[in-house]
Write a structure and sequence with these properties.
CheY-like_superfamily, alpha/beta, 9 helices, Arc Repressor Mutant, subunit A, Rossmann fold, EC 3.1.1.61, 243 residues, hydrolase, globular, 5-stranded antiparallel β-sheet, Transcriptional regulatory protein
C-alpha cells in the first residue's frame, strides 16, 4: 500500500497538478489555501468552462475538482467531452447536497467520484489521495469472470461468446477490480469505503450500495449470470476468477 506518511506525502503532493474549477470565488480561494497547507503547491483555480479549455492545452492536471453547474457551461458535459478526447486523469464532481441526478449523470459521463458541498476538508483530501493512488495502480491485466472478460485499464466488460461490450465508470471498474483482487474472500462495506473511497471506518453512507446496484445493472446488460454476490458480511464474486 502507498505510504501516506507526512514526509512522503509532502513530497508527492508538491508534484501534483490540481485544478479547482468552480464559479464560487470564495470556495476557490478557500480550497486553494487549504490544499496549499497540505502540500499541494501546484493548485490552479479556474472560474468556468471557457477558462478551463483555454488553460488545458498548456497545463494538464493530475486531478480535477469540477463543479456541476457553472454560468458558462455544465460540468457533466465538460467531463464527457474530456473523456471523449482522451483525458484519463481523475475527475471529482462538486455537487449540491442532494443533487442525486447530477451525481448519476456525472458518473455516467466518466467522473471518478463526487463530493457534496459544503464539503469537509478531511473527506476531500482522503478522496484526492485515494483517486490518485487508484489511477497510478491501474493496469492492463485481463480477468475472466465466468462468461465475461474484464480489463481494468479500459474499464470494459465483454461477453466472450456474443462479443457484447459494456463500459463501466472509473469507480465501478475500481470496485470490480477490488473484488477480483480479494477473491475468494468477502469484502465488507467498511473495507470498500476505506480502500476505494478513502473514508474512515464506521462512516454511514449509501455510496457503496448505490455503486454496487449500478454495477450489477451494467453486468446484467451483457450476461444473465450472477457475478457479484451479497452476503451477511459484504460482497464477493460468485464464481472463480482467472487472469
Amino acid at each position: 500500500m502507498q505510504d501516506f506518511s507526512s514526509e512522503n506525502n509532502a513530497f508527492e503532493n508538491n508534484q501534483i497538478r490540481l485544478f479547482v474549477v468552480d464559479d464560487d470565488d470564495l470556495l476557490r480561494a478557500t480550497l486553494k489555501d487549504q490544499l496549499n497547507a497540505e502540500g499541494y503547491s501546484q493548485v490552479t483555480t479556474i472560474a468556468g468552462v471557457t477558462e478551463l479549455f483555454q488553460i488545458l492545452p498548456e497545463c494538464k492536471p493530475d486531478i480535477m475538482l469540477l463543479d456541476v453547474q457553472m454560468p458558462d457551461g455544465n460540468g457533466v458535459d465538460v467531463c464527457r467531452n474530456l473523456r471523449r478526447n482522451g483525458f484519463t486523469k481523475p475527475i471529482l464532481m462538486l455537487t449540491g447536497k442532494d443533487a442525486e441526478e447530477d451525481i448519476i449523470l456525472g458518473l455516467e459521463a466518466g467522473a471518478n467520484d463526487y463530493i457534496s458541498k459544503p464539503m469537509r476538508m478531511g473527506e476531500l483530501l482522503a478522496r484526492i489521495k485515494s483517486h490518485l493512488h487508484q489511477h497510478r495502480a491501474s493496469d492492463d491485466v485481463r480477468f475472466q469472470l465466468g462468461p465475461l472478460s474484464f480489463i481494468p485499464a479500459t474499464k470494459m466488460l465483454q461477453h466472450e461468446e456474443s462479443g457484447q461490450k459494456q463500459l463501466l465508470t472509473e469507480k465501478e471498474a475500481v470496485i470490480l477490480k477490488f473484488f477480483i483482487r480479494a477473491a475468494p474472500e468477502i469484502v465488507s462495506k467498511d473495507e470498500l469505503l476505506k480502500d476505494v473511497w478513502g473514508f474512515r471506518s464506521g462512516v454511514s453512507t449509501h455510496t457503496v450500495e448505490t455503486h454496487i446496484y449500478r454495477l450489477r445493472q451494467k453486468i446484467a446488460r451483457v450476461t444473465s449470470e450472477q457475478i457479484i454476490r451479497t452476503t451477511g458480511k459484504g460482497y464477493c464474486l460468485s464464481n472463480g476468477v482467472s487472469d
